[in-house]
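#lab-general

N.A. 3:47 PM
ok so I finally got the sequence cleaned up, no stray characters, all 405 residues accounted for. can someone with queue access submit it? mine expired

B.Y. 3:52 PM
send it over

N.A. 3:53 PM
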Amino acid sequence: MSEVRKGFVDEDLKRLCAVLVETVSTGEVLRLIRRIKDRKMTVEVLRETGIGKHVRKTLIKHCDEEVKTIAKDILREWKNLVSKEMAHVKVASANASISKDIVFFTSCFSHKKQKRYDQDHLQLCRSKLMVEVSSILNGELNFKQLKIGQLRRIFESLDVHLLGGSLGRLLHHEGRILTWRLSNRMTSRAGQLLTHENAPRKHELGVSTFLLFQSFTGQQKHRKILVNGLECHNRAEALVRIIEHELVHLLQRFDFMSGQCACESAESIHGPKFQNLVKHLFGHKDWRHDLVTPSEIAHTKRGICIGCFVRFELPGEGTLVGKVNRVTKRVTVLVQEDLGACARHQDAREFSDGNFYRKVYVPIEDCMQVDGDTENKKGRGRTKREQSGSSGKRPKRQKRCKEPS
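B.Y. 4:20 PM
back already:
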């Protein structure tokens, strides 16, 4: 239908609606309402004439049964018409918002000089965010427990205050699912984003409660804690920064980012593209964390670090000496086996340095640092000295031995 013809029809329909509103005679009302029912109604006509209100308030209560029946039928049709129109407007608005989000995020990778980030506005948004986070955590900024529901709400608040809700819209648009995990076994990573192998659109964001609870407490209470290279003054602030970091990794998984963020190696994960995105979103470029780790606790309490030698008691074998290969909640000690193949312990394996060791997991408090030349009492042989045991300074970190694959 041409625009001229459509305009003519709309004007004729408006005239009929206007006459119906003013008509009182039952016969005339019935004639007009039948004509209106046979015409194609539009949202514009409904809005301009207010005929829907007249039908709803007057005609469905009319004394004539046929008028009442027709009024109910056309009212039902008009409601469906308005609902479809509103849904269409909503979808169009959502698509426009998503298009803006995509344009914004992809533009963040441009190395050209762009509009400067408004640090004052960012600081204001972050202040509002921290007020809401404090409410979610019941006012405990140095919280002693954390729930999955609280983690999800903090993520949603961060998305609203710092990203205008764009991440939530994009997750829905691409049909992605984000789940949450609190881990007390992550001892070296503050956060981790996993993508399911068999479901590439399902992601899991994990946060290390172990590292958070080790920080801001005890002997480390006044130690400087850094997340994304920025100093944090409490656990809530550190948690928000960790989520920010993983949120950027999540953005890199989206379809429209795949070409921009293709990473050929693990080293490029936090490369210039990652830093550029962080700079545009959060006003800084650093990605490194410095929370209190088990290695730091072990060195502070017992002077233990990777590569040093420790003495410990092993039930049934007495006192043993070995080299520290890893420090988590426990110390992984490598006890060298210098004896022949027949006399070696059944758990002994050859490592990257060509020697045979067996792993022993020892609680930190049961280890005592010793000189590298100390010989264990069981006669397992003499281990090569790899550090000086004379100074009180923290020994230089040694490379870990690895089992050949």
